[in-house]
Specification:
Elements: H1 2-9, H2 11-32, H3 37-42, E1 46-48, E2 51-53, H4 55-77, H5 85-110, H6 116-124, H7 130-133, H8 146-158, H9 166-201, H10 207-218, E3 219-229, H11 242-252, E4 257-258, E5 261-270, H12 275-294, H13 298-302, E6 315-316, H14 322-330, E7 336-342, E8 345-358, E9 360-368, H15 374-388, H16 393-400, H17 404-407, E10 412-417, H18 418-421, H19 426-434, E11 439-444, E12 447-456, E13 459-471, H20 476-492, H21 496-502, E14 511-515, H22 529-535, E15 547-549, E16 552-562, E17 565-566, H23 569-596, H24 601-607, E18 612-618, H25 632-637, E19 646-651, E20 655-666, H26 673-699, E21 702-704
Antiparallel strand pairs: 1-2, 1-21, 3-18, 3-20, 4-17, 5-14, 5-16, 6-13, 7-8, 8-13, 9-10, 9-12, 11-12, 15-16, 19-20
Length: about 700
């Protein structure tokens, strides 16, 4: 019995122990399961109306879009993607995926589709969309080449990758994927167009709408006016109570919905070279001068010693920068100039050679595999014979060339300078710039070619100049010194209060920014996405690690978290106070004018301590009045007032106004109902296209977790 009584006495403890054990068992099972709640919650970028966007789907689309953008930048600008592009592409892809889901749901609910025949017509039929046309338009003539498009599609959609070598197969695959993305985009745009058209038709104007639109622009007036600005009354003389602020807040509350916001304070330290780094770089280039001046292998020497790659090509002297051009014009072969300091770099030049040759050549080719067997060589000889006997080069290129890009355009490679041609090797450069105008063969790193130079520019003075360029960069010692300075500050000021209090004394300038989950730029940083991600994973009062962003060491502190929902009244006090100040000042001005009882515009101007100004060509539809700004009340009053009749005082956005119309013009052009209808529908379509997605997002159930991943 004693034992039983002890057990009963410890029953509460036993229940607690068993409860803890069961909880540990359940949590352990959850953590070890491949389909746990936690993993399910983590494994989604977003959920849009119940449809998941997984990291894998998102990343695949980001990669495709990045490759497209990279190719475009290389083709159009000859450069890689700019800094910050990755974060912006991520956001663009996310927005597009959300939009696709919302529009797919909306169009499916209405039964809207794009048929195969309709899509074919938009891509290669009689109504080809501009997106496709611009890809196959000659930049010189501006003429769209439909045959080029059809040839491209024949190759890209039907060619077997297994028949091509590795590089060509990769190119074909990339172009096929790019085309399929274009198809998807065009189909989506067509669906969106149908959806918007349906929506705009639901807002089609009736007779009264058209008459109102016409009448709104029918009467144009000039008027004289006097204004007393709200700034004429000091804010300190106007009393605003807490209850007034609260009442206005509640009245406008629906306008203040917002995502969760996070406030951070941060400082940034530029990672720049020290004085010692400049001296070290200058010494290094001076030590290299003798070798640079005497070596017979300038390409080999520069491959290890310069920050600007050596280009083994002759360049037109007129295209050189002034310093190099002056040197190239007067120097002797192998003469060296420098070092000089320019653009944060130390530079030396060495003249390798001079020539007089065409600046550019226009060439076309038929390309065969690099490892050409006897059969291929016989085919090349046969084609050369056909060409020399008057054969059609463009047709043969389309039929036989393995370079699918140029084959679709008759083998045309366009205009090449020696600098752009050097990638094909010196044999190629020598053949096209120094050879004749007939057909010839040449081998390059890319394959075997049958070539023809179709045009050459006039010969110009050219020079081959080797450059040894050393950019001054922060050394590891400088890097460590700056990093240690920032690190020491964090170690000594790991709490928010001291972090804020002591920054200025240590030479750090704190910046305050409010962030949303979708932000990319942060303050002066073009791409501060890492800071945004950190802020949304942290707790109020946390101090970040040291970020290395855009050549800056940066440290942030999370100073405030505003939950999603309605922005708090405190954060909107200044905004609301401005409205209340304007209203109260307007009442004060109008009361003062009423007491003075002026009867003329001159008297009103005197009572307002103002002057008389004029406004011209104002209609009911005018959005901004020249010299005044946005004052809808004036556009509503002036066009319907009689000439000479005093109007006002009226309360505007910026002050109190009194006006008198001096001239009124009524349009004699009769109403054209069809034209007014077109303008009205265009206006409605523009409003819909700019706002519909935000409305759809606002009404949708969207769980956005992107900030946890990217």
């Amino acid at each position: 019995m004693a034992t039983l009584q002890k057990i009963r006495g410890k029953a509460g403890l036993l229940v607690g122990v068993i409860g803890v054990a069961l909880l540990a068992f359940i949590v352990g099972d959850l953590l070890n399961s491949g389909h746990t709640f936690f993993n399910m919650n983590r494994n989604k970028i977003a959920v849009v109306n119940g449809k998941k966007i997984t990291p894998e789907e998102f990343q695949a689309q980001v990669q495709t879009r990045t490759e497209e953008m990279q190719n475009m930048y290389r083709r159009q600008y000859g450069m890689s993607l700019p800094e910050g592009a990755a974060s912006r592409i991520n956001k663009e892809v996310y927005d597009q995926m959300v939009q696709d889901i919302l529009l797919t749901d909306a169009t499916a609910e209405l039964g809207l589709t794009v048929s195969k025949e309709e899509l074919a017509d938009l891509l290669q039929g009689d109504n080809i969309v501009p997106m496709v046309k611009q890809q196959f338009t000659d930049p010189q003539t501006g003429v769209f080449n439909k045959d080029l498009l059809l040839n491209f599609l024949q190759v890209v959609l039907n060619e077997d990758e297994s028949n091509l070598n590795g590089e060509m197969a990769q190119q074909l695959k990339a172009r096929r994927e790019a085309w399929l993305n274009i198809e998807k985009t065009v189909k989506q745009q067509q669906l969106v167009g149908k959806y918007f058209t349906l929506l705009s038709k639901s807002m089609a104007p009736n007779k009264l709408d058209l008459e109102a639109a016409y009448n709104g622009a029918k009467n144009s007036v000039d008027f004289a006016y006097a204004e007393q600005s709200y700034t004429s009354i000091p804010d300190s003389t106007v009393v605003i109570s807490e209850s007034e602020l609260k009442n206005l807040y509640n009245k406008q509350k629906e306008n203040f919905k917002q995502d969760e916001k996070r406030e951070v304070k941060f400082f940034a330290v530029d990672i720049v070279p020290s004085e010692g780094d400049y001296k070290m770089t200058e010494e290094k280039i001076n030590n290299l001068k003798e070798n640079f001046s005497t070596t017979d292998d300038i390409a080999g020497m520069l491959s290890f010693n310069t920050d600007v790659p050596y280009v083994d090509a002759y360049v037109a002297q007129r295209d050189m920068d002034p310093e190099m051009k002056k040197f190239a014009e007067t120097a002797q072969i192998n003469e060296v100039y420098g070092p000089v300091f320019e653009d944060e770099s130390y530079k030396m030049y060495r003249l390798i050679g001079k020539s007089v040759a065409p600046d550019s050549v226009k060439v076309r080719h038929i390309m065969f595999p690099l490892q050409a067997d006897a059969k291929v060589k016989a085919q090349m000889d046969s084609i050369l014979t056909v060409l020399k006997n008057g054969g059609d080069f463009a047709a043969l290129a389309k039929q036989f060339s393995v370079d699918q890009n140029s084959a679709a355009n008759g083998g045309d490679l366009g205009w090449l300078t020696e600098t752009s041609a050097v990638q094909f090797g010196q044999k190629f450069v020598s053949s096209v710039f120094n050879g004749g105008s007939g057909y010839f063969t040449v081998e390059t790193p890319y394959g075997q070619h049958i070539m023809q130079v179709t045009e050459r520019t006039a010969s110009v003075p050219k020079a081959k100049v080797a450059q040894l360029v050393l950019k001054v960069r922060p050394s590891s010692e400088t890097y460590s010194t700056l990093y240690n300075k920032v690190s020491s500050y964090i170690a000594e000021n790991g709490k928010l209060e001291s972090f804020e209090k002591n920054a200025k004394d240590k030479g750090f300038s704190l910046n305050t920014v409010e962030l949303t989950p979708e932000d990319i730029s942060v303050g002066m940083l073009n791409d501060g996405r890492e800071i945004v991600k950190w802020a949304y994973k942290s707790d109020k009062g946390d101090i970040s690690e040291i970020f290395n962003i855009e050549n800056k060491f940066l440290v942030a502190a999370l100073t405030n978290v505003t939950p999603a929902g309605y922005a708090p009244l405190k954060s909107l006090e200044s905004y609301l106070k401005m409205q209340l100040l304007a209203d109260k000042k307007a009442d004060m001005i109008m009361k003062s004018l009423s007491e003075k009882s002026p009867k003329t515009l001159d008297a009103y101007a005197s009572a307002m301590s103002s002057k008389i100004d004029t406004a011209k060509f104002v209609t009911f539809n005018t959005s901004v009045i020249t010299g005044i700004g946005r004052e809808p009340v004036l556009c509503g009053v002036a066009p319907y007032a009689s000439v000479g009749q005093l109007q006002g005082p009226v309360k505007g956005n910026n002050g109190v106004y009194v006006l008198a119309v001096t001239k009124k013009d009524e349009s004699s052009v009769p109403m054209n109902a069809e034209m007014e209808k077109q303008k009205y529908e265009q206006m409605m379509y523009s409003i819909l296209s700019s706002q519909i997605m935000e409305v759809m997002k606002d009404k949708a159930d969207i769980e956005n977790n992107r900030v946890k991943f990217f």
